[in-house]
Amino acid sequence: MKAYDPHEIEPRLQLQWQESGLYTVDETSDKPRKYVLEMFPYPSGDIHMGHVSNYTYGDVVARYSRMRGFNVLHPMGWDAFGLPAENAAIKHHSHPAKWTYDNIDTQRASFKRMGYSYDWDRTVVACDPEYYRWGQWIFLEFWRRGLVERRNSPVNWCDDCGTVLANEQVIDGRCWRCDSEVQKRDLTQWYYKITDYAEELLADLDQLTGWPENVKQQQANWIGKSEGANVDFALVPLAETRSPLASDCEIGGDVVPPISCPAESGSGPQASGTNSDREVITVFTTRADTLFGCSFFVVGPEYEGLAALVAGTPNEADVLAFAEEARKVSAVERAQGDREKHGIFTGRYVVNPVNGEQVPVWVADYVVADYGTGAVMAVPCGDQRDFDFARKYDLPIIPIILSEDDPLYEQLKDQQGRVVTQVDWTEAYGAEGVLVQSGPYTGMKGGKHSPAEAAIVAALEAAGTGKRTTEYRLRDWLISRQRYWGNPIPAIHCPQCGVVPVPEEDLPVRLPEDIDLAAGETLATHAGFANTTCPVCGGPAKRETDTMDTFTCSSWYYMRYCDPHNVHAPFASDRVNAWMPVDQYIGGIEHAILHLLYSRFFTKVLRDAGMLDFDEPFTNLLCQGMVLDAHGEVMSKSKGNVVSPEEMIQDYGADAVRAAMLFMGPPDKEKLWNDDIVPSMMKFLNRVWRIVHDLVGKAGDDTLFDPQADASDVHTLAMAMKRERHRVVGKVTDDFDRNNFNTALAAIMELTNAVASFLRLRPADHRMACQTGGPLCQDVAETLVKLIAPIAPHMADELWQTVLGQSGSVHEQPWPEYDPEQAKADEVEIAVQLSGKVKARIMVAADADEDAAVAAAKEAVEAQLAGKTIVKQIYVPGRLVNIVAK
RNA sequence: GCCCGGGUGGCGGAAUGGCAGACGCGGAGGUCUCAAAAACCUCUACCUUCGGGUGUGUGGGUUCGACUCCCACCCCGGGCACCA
């Protein structure tokens, strides 16, 4: 027997697989198709343990699927545009392409060394003009469909990266890439109008039954749908303002005079002050039911009409100064949720449309600028933020929604007028409750989506002062970047014709290669690139010099894999429709929002463009957990705790590294790396290697079972091995179907243990005659090799081809069959419980009926049953007998 | 604050409401060996007066039976967050 030597076996088989084109997809095959995909890597350097984890899972799924009879598409490529390449180029006075392609070469070699079964003919590299050309084409298609917009607005600017960022790339006010503080700047930028798809992106999450719940939850949070209403508050003209100073701005006195309301006047909410000639400030609210509790009104410091609003008021200068200061607060500081609130009275009033009350308008820093209308109605009774603000500035808190258990409810439930009660609460009442002091709605149930909310919105709509609306937290996707190493935006700025698209036949707009980034050159300063002619009028014009966010590249690469060499289009629809959606997608949880949301968006747009016949790109999603060091710390160069896959392969071989990664735990959980695990897997593979050799050595031996010798033991263990063979195939099949790689491997170990027991118990000098012994050994050996083939593909193929002497590769073999009947034992051990406590264990026939099992069980616990009456007995076949006795 | 996960031996982790701790690591002892390595074997949750008792974050509940289901709480990880 040759010793197991992964360093000899692995490179040899990798070459054999490559030369035979084992993993090249055959588009003409009539097998059912399966698309197995892992998120493509960014070529940042050599691979790390996170890559090993991700791509090993994908490779096991791909290899297992092939053996299950699928025609499997399993491609690999690189997400090759991005800032690190540019920084490296500046540092080394070279070109980003060099750094990128060098790293791709390194990674490709490592992936091959890991034995991953990719179809390398389909590789997509995002910075290849043959790929990014079609990213530009898709940009133009989005433009044609009205989904591209260029607009000026406050954007996130990262100074260290020298570019703007999408909302999704700002984490707690910091840049996702370099962690430096993000500033707000007013800039004209390019957007993809993802908000047009907000509703569908949210609603279709329900279709994604193969996605982890937390990812769907994160996307739903990010989209952030709120159903409510826009309500118009009419501005009281300055001339009619009755109380000009901030200090008297409360609704005067303790008792507000009774207001007219439908119960008295017979009409809907008073539309007082909503004449068309009056200026209106609109607010968005999900709690229209609390309108009667509105005691002030707030606009944010960024509110557009602020200057006009305060023009001519006594406090104009102070208000503008306050707003200016508030705007300067950094995003990082603002990201802290429980900041102290600050505000100032504007001197103006608006009219509450439900009751005609005039309420003071404040400017405060707790109003979010780009959500809703940038203005809110304040109901301190029902909203904690308004409550805090009211307390700080001594503004009225009018109880209008209460729990029925509240003593105050008894006092107020029949209150006719409007008592401005300064309640002694310590916090707002945010829950559902019953309305009081709310005109005709008093006594109705209030809360989000409550009857009172519906009734009040309906009345506002009837009166023309309100409208049902849905707001989303999702913002449009800012796709332009002020960087070189990205996909150029195919647009031209013509002084005559404005901003015009680059004609399709002129694609791709190529990145100039002769650029000196180290000297500070940019696309904008590169004359050869920036200067062009207008495709409409032919006059001199400037090229757009922003590039696209790299996430635009990763939003459709999985479609390109289906038709990677197409020179006429991004892809042929029939090819993509034949493979997609991706059956199993695997990647890191950090893309729960960014990449996965953008990809879903692209899919829906291209579907609407008639290019795709499916709604969602990824049917099943597996988000792998991070690989951490033994102490649960993230591996990083600065901490010096990085485990190198390359070193592990050198020491133990790729198969052992793969097995170790799979065995560490469930794929979606964090994995704590332990240095002992790879050698122990090497040990296990060695054991399999020897066992298969041993079994094959016995396979030709038709004298295996000698009834003259200790036949009972040998026969018993042979039968146990056979049962285990069937049971384990069932278990492994089930586990692979559910991506439970760790327990699949554990089950394979159990089979090897059964085989080892069998082999050990048969001393070499036993010569036995049996018809079935040899074939059983051969069958078990083949089965074991097939089961382990997806996990340790090199060793399995070597055993298959040389030790088992089979032709072809094990990776083309059908997955082993199993017979559940044969997995059953004749006799099983069951537990005997007394009132749920295990008291004994007995052997019974596997098919024992209840009477037999219970009788045997009683015998086993006879002593403990003495003097007791049996109340109940439960028999779970193959498991236990539970006797309840008093 | 809201929304997801999770809490099981010394460690990683197993358990369709049915014998908790599969499988592996580590540890102890042994076989083989001149010796070591490798390989193989046995043991390995805790307490115990050796009868048994206790154990899956805590406290209740449902059930013949709960790691699993329900209620309340504690702790850890993640996401969202002055989003009206």
Low-confidence stretches: 244-276, 702-710, 763-772
Beta-strand portion reads 15-25%
Helix content: 25-40%
Give the overall pLDDT as a whole number: 88
Alpha-carbon distance between the two ends:
64 Å
Structural category: alpha+beta
User: What is the count of DSSP helices, taking H or I runs of 4+ residues?
Assistant: 28
Tell me about the biggest sheet?
7 strands, mixed
- How many β strands by DSSP? 35
Which value, in Å, is the CA radius of gyration? 36 Å
Shape: flat
How does this structure look, described?
The chain has 886 residues and is an alpha+beta fold. It is 35% helix and 19% strand. A hairpin with a 6-residue loop joins strand 25 (531-533) and strand 26 (540-543). Helix 21 (654-663) packs across helix 22 (677-699). The model is unreliable at 244-276, 702-710 and 763-772 (pLDDT under 50). The protein binds one RNA strand of 84 nucleotides through helix 7, strand 10, strand 14, helix 12 and strand 31.
Describe the SSE topology.
Layout: H1 6-20, E1 33-38, H2 49-67, E2 71-73, H3 83-92, H4 96-113, H5 129-144, E3 148-158, E4 163-165, E5 170-171, E6 174-175, E7 182-192, H6 198-203, H7 213-223, E8 225-235, E9 255-256, H8 262-265, E10 280-285, E11 296-299, H9 306-310, H10 316-327, H11 331-334, E12 343-351, E13 358-364, E14 375-378, H12 384-393, E15 401-402, H13 407-412, E16 418-419, E17 433-435, E18 445-446, H14 451-463, E19 466-472, E20 477-478, E21 480-481, E22 487-488, E23 491-494, E24 498-501, H15 527-530, E25 531-533, E26 540-543, E27 547-548, H16 550-553, H17 557-560, H18 573-579, E28 582-588, H19 594-608, E29 618-624, E30 627-628, H20 645-652, H21 654-663, E31 671-672, H22 677-699, H23 711-737, H24 741-760, H25 773-788, H26 793-803, E32 827-834, E33 837-845, H27 850-860, H28 862-865, E34 870-876, E35 880-885
Parallel strand pairs: 1-2, 1-28, 11-13, 28-29, 30-31, 32-35
Antiparallel strand pairs: 3-4, 3-7, 5-6, 7-20, 8-10, 8-12, 8-19, 9-16, 11-14, 12-13, 15-17, 17-18, 21-27, 22-27, 23-24, 23-26, 25-26, 32-33, 34-35
Helix pairs in contact: 1-26, 2-21, 3-4, 20-21, 21-22, 22-24, 22-25, 23-24, 23-25, 24-25, 25-26
This protein binds one RNA strand of 84 nucleotides through helix 7, strand 10, strand 14, helix 12 and strand 31.
